[in-house]
Hints:
Number of helices: 0
Amino acid sequence: PAGPQAVYLAADWPVESAVPVAVPGAVPPVDDPARLGVYRLKNRREWDFVEGISSGARPEFHLSDPGLHAVFEDVGAPIMEIFKKTMEVHPAEPRGIEGISDRRWQASPIEVFDPGSGLNTGSIRATLNGERIILEPDPPRDRLLVHWPDDLEPGAHELVIEVADRAGNISRRVYFALLE
Length: 180
Protein backbone atom coordinates (compact mmCIF):
# COMPACT_ATOMS: atom_id res chain seq x y z
CA PRO A 1 0.00 0.00 0.00
CA ALA A 2 1.05 3.57 -0.70
CA GLY A 3 -0.84 4.85 2.30
CA PRO A 4 -3.02 3.87 5.24
CA GLN A 5 -5.29 0.87 5.45
CA ALA A 6 -8.31 0.03 7.61
CA VAL A 7 -10.89 -2.70 8.12
CA TYR A 8 -14.53 -1.58 7.94
CA LEU A 9 -17.06 -3.90 9.55
CA ALA A 10 -20.83 -4.14 9.30
CA ALA A 11 -23.10 -6.68 10.95
CA ASP A 12 -25.67 -6.31 8.20
CA TRP A 13 -25.13 -4.06 5.18
CA PRO A 14 -28.76 -2.95 4.80
CA VAL A 15 -28.98 -1.26 1.40
CA GLU A 16 -27.22 -0.85 -1.90
CA SER A 17 -25.59 2.48 -1.19
CA ALA A 18 -22.31 4.05 -0.18
CA VAL A 19 -21.26 6.01 2.87
CA PRO A 20 -18.64 8.77 2.57
CA VAL A 21 -15.71 7.81 4.80
CA ALA A 22 -12.48 9.68 5.50
CA VAL A 23 -9.29 7.80 4.69
CA PRO A 24 -7.71 7.00 8.06
CA GLY A 25 -4.30 8.55 8.60
CA ALA A 26 -2.25 10.67 6.25
CA VAL A 27 -1.85 9.87 2.56
CA PRO A 28 1.81 10.33 1.62
CA PRO A 29 2.62 12.74 -1.21
CA VAL A 30 3.19 11.12 -4.61
CA ASP A 31 4.45 12.41 -7.96
CA ASP A 32 1.00 12.13 -9.58
CA PRO A 33 -1.96 12.28 -7.14
CA ALA A 34 -4.31 11.04 -9.91
CA ARG A 35 -2.72 7.60 -9.48
CA LEU A 36 -3.93 7.23 -5.87
CA GLY A 37 -6.93 5.06 -5.18
CA VAL A 38 -8.71 3.08 -2.52
CA TYR A 39 -8.79 -0.69 -3.06
CA ARG A 40 -10.73 -3.42 -1.22
CA LEU A 41 -9.25 -6.85 -0.49
CA LYS A 42 -11.27 -9.55 -2.23
CA ASN A 43 -10.87 -13.31 -1.67
CA ARG A 44 -7.82 -12.71 0.59
CA ARG A 45 -5.50 -12.35 -2.42
CA GLU A 46 -6.85 -9.79 -4.91
CA TRP A 47 -7.44 -6.08 -4.55
CA ASP A 48 -10.42 -4.44 -6.29
CA PHE A 49 -10.39 -0.76 -7.21
CA VAL A 50 -13.03 1.20 -5.29
CA GLU A 51 -12.35 4.77 -6.45
CA GLY A 52 -9.64 7.36 -6.93
CA ILE A 53 -8.81 9.82 -4.18
CA SER A 54 -6.87 13.04 -3.92
CA SER A 55 -3.84 13.47 -1.70
CA GLY A 56 -5.46 16.35 0.18
CA ALA A 57 -5.48 16.88 3.93
CA ARG A 58 -8.46 14.56 4.58
CA PRO A 59 -9.45 12.62 1.46
CA GLU A 60 -12.68 10.64 1.43
CA PHE A 61 -14.03 7.68 -0.50
CA HIS A 62 -17.45 6.07 -0.79
CA LEU A 63 -17.60 2.88 1.27
CA SER A 64 -20.09 0.45 -0.28
CA ASP A 65 -18.83 -2.88 1.08
CA PRO A 66 -17.27 -3.92 4.40
CA GLY A 67 -13.74 -5.34 4.51
CA LEU A 68 -10.09 -4.35 4.40
CA HIS A 69 -9.49 -1.17 2.39
CA ALA A 70 -6.10 0.37 1.58
CA VAL A 71 -4.65 3.23 -0.43
CA PHE A 72 -2.49 2.19 -3.38
CA GLU A 73 -0.68 4.09 -6.11
CA ASP A 74 -1.47 2.67 -9.58
CA VAL A 75 1.76 2.85 -11.59
CA GLY A 76 1.07 0.07 -14.11
CA ALA A 77 -0.38 0.68 -17.57
CA PRO A 78 -3.15 -1.48 -19.05
CA ILE A 79 -2.03 -4.82 -20.46
CA MET A 80 -2.79 -5.52 -24.12
CA GLU A 81 -2.56 -8.85 -25.87
CA ILE A 82 0.69 -9.51 -27.70
CA PHE A 83 0.45 -11.57 -30.87
CA LYS A 84 3.48 -13.68 -31.71
CA LYS A 85 2.77 -13.21 -35.40
CA THR A 86 0.52 -11.20 -37.62
CA MET A 87 -3.21 -11.29 -36.83
CA GLU A 88 -5.07 -13.22 -39.49
CA VAL A 89 -8.46 -11.79 -40.44
CA HIS A 90 -10.86 -13.90 -42.49
CA PRO A 91 -14.03 -13.08 -44.39
CA ALA A 92 -17.15 -13.05 -42.24
CA GLU A 93 -19.70 -15.82 -42.52
CA PRO A 94 -22.96 -14.71 -44.17
CA ARG A 95 -25.74 -14.21 -41.63
CA GLY A 96 -28.59 -14.33 -44.12
CA ILE A 97 -30.78 -11.83 -42.30
CA GLU A 98 -33.09 -10.06 -44.74
CA GLY A 99 -32.61 -6.29 -44.83
CA ILE A 100 -29.24 -6.35 -43.02
CA SER A 101 -26.06 -6.31 -45.03
CA ASP A 102 -23.39 -8.81 -44.00
CA ARG A 103 -19.99 -7.70 -42.76
CA ARG A 104 -17.11 -8.39 -45.12
CA TRP A 105 -14.57 -9.29 -42.38
CA GLN A 106 -14.75 -11.15 -39.07
CA ALA A 107 -14.36 -8.99 -35.97
CA SER A 108 -11.05 -9.45 -34.11
CA PRO A 109 -11.00 -9.51 -30.29
CA ILE A 110 -7.91 -8.09 -28.57
CA GLU A 111 -7.48 -8.80 -24.87
CA VAL A 112 -6.93 -5.68 -22.78
CA PHE A 113 -7.30 -5.24 -19.03
CA ASP A 114 -5.98 -3.24 -16.14
CA PRO A 115 -5.58 -4.97 -12.77
CA GLY A 116 -5.24 -1.61 -10.99
CA SER A 117 -7.73 1.21 -11.34
CA GLY A 118 -9.42 -0.29 -14.42
CA LEU A 119 -9.65 0.83 -18.02
CA ASN A 120 -10.79 4.29 -19.00
CA THR A 121 -12.87 3.22 -22.00
CA GLY A 122 -13.19 6.86 -23.06
CA SER A 123 -9.43 6.99 -23.65
CA ILE A 124 -9.33 4.36 -26.41
CA ARG A 125 -7.66 5.69 -29.56
CA ALA A 126 -6.89 3.61 -32.64
CA THR A 127 -5.65 4.10 -36.18
CA LEU A 128 -5.73 1.71 -39.10
CA ASN A 129 -3.09 2.49 -41.71
CA GLY A 130 -2.81 5.98 -40.17
CA GLU A 131 -6.57 6.71 -40.32
CA ARG A 132 -8.73 6.94 -37.21
CA ILE A 133 -10.89 3.88 -36.47
CA ILE A 134 -13.38 3.28 -33.67
CA LEU A 135 -13.02 0.12 -31.58
CA GLU A 136 -15.76 -1.45 -29.48
CA PRO A 137 -14.84 -1.80 -25.79
CA ASP A 138 -16.09 -5.01 -24.15
CA PRO A 139 -15.14 -4.54 -20.45
CA PRO A 140 -16.98 -7.61 -19.07
CA ARG A 141 -14.78 -9.80 -21.28
CA ASP A 142 -11.58 -7.71 -20.87
CA ARG A 143 -11.25 -7.03 -24.58
CA LEU A 144 -11.62 -4.62 -27.47
CA LEU A 145 -13.37 -5.64 -30.67
CA VAL A 146 -11.96 -4.52 -34.01
CA HIS A 147 -14.68 -4.33 -36.67
CA TRP A 148 -12.68 -4.05 -39.87
CA PRO A 149 -14.14 -1.62 -42.44
CA ASP A 150 -16.00 -3.40 -45.25
CA ASP A 151 -14.11 -1.40 -47.89
CA LEU A 152 -10.72 -2.53 -46.55
CA GLU A 153 -8.81 -4.43 -49.23
CA PRO A 154 -7.18 -7.81 -48.55
CA GLY A 155 -3.51 -7.64 -47.61
CA ALA A 156 -1.29 -6.34 -44.81
CA HIS A 157 -2.48 -3.48 -42.58
CA GLU A 158 -1.17 -1.66 -39.48
CA LEU A 159 -3.42 -1.17 -36.44
CA VAL A 160 -2.21 1.10 -33.60
CA ILE A 161 -4.13 1.07 -30.30
CA GLU A 162 -3.65 3.37 -27.32
CA VAL A 163 -5.60 3.01 -24.08
CA ALA A 164 -5.25 4.46 -20.58
CA ASP A 165 -6.43 3.35 -17.18
CA ARG A 166 -8.40 5.54 -14.78
CA ALA A 167 -5.11 6.60 -13.13
CA GLY A 168 -3.78 7.99 -16.44
CA ASN A 169 -1.23 5.24 -17.21
CA ILE A 170 -1.07 4.75 -21.00
CA SER A 171 -0.41 1.62 -23.03
CA ARG A 172 0.30 1.68 -26.78
CA ARG A 173 0.66 -1.29 -29.07
CA VAL A 174 1.19 -1.73 -32.82
CA TYR A 175 -0.45 -4.73 -34.47
CA PHE A 176 -0.08 -6.06 -37.98
CA ALA A 177 -3.10 -7.69 -39.59
CA LEU A 178 -3.33 -9.78 -42.71
CA LEU A 179 -6.77 -9.75 -44.27
CA GLU A 180 -7.15 -12.85 -46.44
